[in-house]
Automatic annotation (TrEMBL):
InterPro entries: ASCH_domain, PUA-like_sf. Residues 5-90 form the ASCH domain. It comes from Pantoea deleyi. Pfam families: ASCH. This is ASCH domain-containing protein.
Length: 112
């Protein structure tokens, strides 16, 4: 199964179904299908989601694509991404990974 790590503060939002995408840079290819999202500080704290599609676009395009341009100005998004990827810039090509919620994933796996 594919696997990615998340910072601990994001795990509750994924569990509640509020976070259904993640942005990655130079971490390898993720494809549609099952994905295990693990707490970066505790791999036992994990959820499984279904990746629906993956887009490759510039970091500067991500906020608009997600309908969050007003909430995520370029400087704010860049600062947040640089916490994890110090060399990233707004022109960097990133993967925008879209996924179902854990509940939707469970239903899909159960054939509902």
């Amino acid at each position: 199964m594919q696997r990615l790590t998340l910072v601990p503060r994001l795990m509750p939002a994924v569990r509640r179904g509020e976070k259904t995408s993640t942005i990655r840079w130079q971490e390898g290819v993720i494809v549609p299908g099952l994905l295990r999202l693990e707490n970066r500080q505790d791999a036992a704290d994990a959820v499984t989601v279904w990746v629906t599609h993956v887009e490759t676009l510039r970091l500067s395009e991500v906020a608009a694509r997600l309908g969050k341009a007003a909430e995520w100005p370029d400087a704010w998004l860049l600062a947040g991404m640089r916490e994890h990827y110090p060399a990233i810039c707004l022109s960097s090509e990133v993967q925008l990974i879209h996924h179902l919620t854990p509940a939707q994933t469970e239903a899909k796996r159960a054939g509902r």
